Amino acid sequence: MKIKVIVTLKNGVLDPQGKAIQQTLNGMSFNNVTEVRQGKFFEIDISETDEDKAKLQVEEMCKKLLANLVIEDYKIV
Amino acid sequence: MKSSVIIFPGSNCDRDMNVALSKYGFKNQMVWHNDQSIPKSDLIVLPGGFSYGDYLRCGSIASKSKIIRSVIDFANSGGLVLGICNGFQILTETGLLPGILQQNKYLNFICKNVFVKIKDKKNKYFQNIKKDILELHIAHNEGNFFCSEQELKSLEDNNQIAVTYCDSKGLENEENNPNGAIKNIAGIFNKNKNVLGMMPHPERMIDKYLSGEDGSIFFENLLGNLK
Questions:
Q1: Residue A35: which CATH number?
Q2: Which of A6, A72, B43, B172 gives the lowest tally of CB atoms within 10 Å of its CB?
Q3: Active-site residue, B85 included
Q4: Separation of alpha carbons B222 and B206, rounded Å
Q5: Could B107 and A17 be called an inter-chain contact, meaning their C-beta atoms sit closer than 8 Å?
Q6: What domains are there in chain B, each with its CATH number?
Q7: Could you give the number of structural domains in chain A?
Q8: Chain B residue closest in CA terms to A14
Q9: Residues near B110 by Cβ (< 8 Å), separated by ≥ 6?
Q10: What is the mean pLDDT of residues B2-21?
Q11: What is the pLDDT of residue B36?
Q12: Helix, strand or coil, per DSSP, at residue A22
């Protein structure tokens, strides 16, 4: 089973890379781009048939390794 | 006094640290990250570098390595643990120190000498140092210290801020903040002040002909405090 996870910076945490991307897009004449936030995407293959069980496990992985909860949020999609 | 320097794949300041510790009289040993235990030590050092290629987040993979359990146990029993640069990042990822080191505010790798102000001398690392300002070297891409307001207040209330970026006279302002770190923070302690993480590299300032000698002051003083 494949579980997908998105890790993003929490609101209010400075994202200098996102800011640089936004400014570059503006420079490429995508003038209506007002903000870009950059994040991480994980695809996790897990040998498990029960989806709820798998998601619970992935949630633990997010808390322990994939995200740093000081600055990041995670979403299992 | 005995010290141990932990080597992770991608560490690159481990040998400099070995030279510095040995020069000032520590009997130092190098410990591989895959080892289970650390030889008897008075000080454990997590050196600078790019452990595990900085994959995922700087220090995050090293914070789950085999040897780390022993480092955490040592720290929790009051042992001195010093993390420099990547070592500081590893310490925050283990939870031994609060906060996180984010990418530098202006997205550049910074490699230069800086001045830091010693904010607290009631600890084994800085007590008896006569100087208040040290000139040390920084070289990092992720040194932008960040933590929640609540954590910052707790750091301030418990005098856990160890060193801050400043100018040669001790002025701490935005101009003297190389990486955007909150409150110019360059290094912090844990609550008991036996764990110190800092971005500047004292081991790069131990030769008056090559660099400067403020790192020597740090190591000589530390050894003196441990005797």
A1: 3.30.1280.10
A2: A6
A3: yes
A4: 14
A5: yes
A6: 2-226 (3.40.50.880)
A7: 1
A8: B105
A9: B104, B138, B139, B140, B141, B143, B178, B179
A10: 98
A11: 87
A12: helix
**Which of B189, B58, B31, B53 lies closest to B119, judged by CA?**
B189
Mark yes or no for CB contact A71/B93 under 8 Å: no
Tell whether the model's pLDDT for residue A2 goes beyond 90: yes
Residue span of the structural domain in which A13 resides: 2-76
User: Residue A38 has which token pair?
Assistant: 């950059």
Q: What ipTM is given for this predicted complex?
A: 0.81
CA B209, chain centre distance (Å): 24
Q: What is the mean pLDDT of residues B31-54?
A: 96
CA angle, B141 then B179 then A40, to 5°:
50
Q: How far apart are CA B91 and CA B112, in angstroms?
A: 23
Partner B, chain A 14-43, Cβ-Cβ below 8 Å: 14, 16-17, 20
Structure tokens at B20: 């510095």
Mean pLDDT of chain B: 97
DSSP label of B201: B
